[in-house]
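pasting for ref
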Amino acid sequence: MNYKPLQELALNTAGILKEKNPRFPFLLVEHRVRIHPVTILVHNALSEQMMDEWKNSFQAQPSFSQPPSVFEADGWFYFLGLTEFGSFPFYFFVFNSEPPQNIQDLLEAWKKESRLLNDALRETAVAHETTQGNLISQLLHDVQAIMTLQPENSTNEALQTRLNYQQKVNENLLLFIRPLELLPSRLPLSDLIHSSMQMVNIPPQKYSLTISVSLAEIEVDAEFMARAIQEIVWNSLQAGAPSCTIHAKLIPAGSPFVTKDWLELSFSDSGSGISQDYLKSVTEPFFTTRKNEGHSGFGLALVKKIADAHGGYLTIESKKNQGTEVKLYIPV
């Protein structure tokens, strides 16, 4: 879903506020469900010290299960464009004193427009995803039917290799285009990682695992999370790394609008690394530099989809010939 229109609406509203009330202090803040959740997009008549004071106050607030659209905390007045949000970004205004009625009227109009725009964007995204998913699914079924026409006793090795590759592409693409239906279960994190490696025959000497003592168990879809872990470790090993180092730790939420802390799963290696030209594309479906080796280009694309389905996200840092670090963040 494209949330750029929501950002533009918030920025336009901030522009009107600055034009009509140039000396009235306020902040426009973008909030994302991340370990560093807030970005100040616009600040007006507030010093750096006052903005730091607000950040400290914000991070110290208790979590909201359902925040009100307008509230006051530590002398700061908050106006939220949306009060129902998930992993997508949302926007809010902050004032260090209660704003006059004319500003509150403008903010009320902004909130109504935000809700209407958000609903429209959601409906459009769902309709597009459903339509595209159905079309691609039908196409893949037709391709699958054609693939079964190969004679059973065919000795054409090139054809068989291509059919095997196409079978893998079909399976991965169907998984990628369909919404993931999670079946969460609570299990020890160490068991999940070790069993994930065993399922794809990755021996213990090919990875090392360190887990924070506060992370005895997590609640995730075990099958999908195992797939994500396997894909990341396989990428490390295929990049020439002798082993992959896995480190797990818990990170505080850092926002009253996020009710869970973060599990950070870090996977680092000393392999060949990823060119900066390719780094932005590695989570796109079909992207691979090893297609001639039978890779379909869905590994990290599926990892990202699995992270998104759990309400989390993925980061990747890499330098050519120096190695790669992939971090998987899951709310727990």
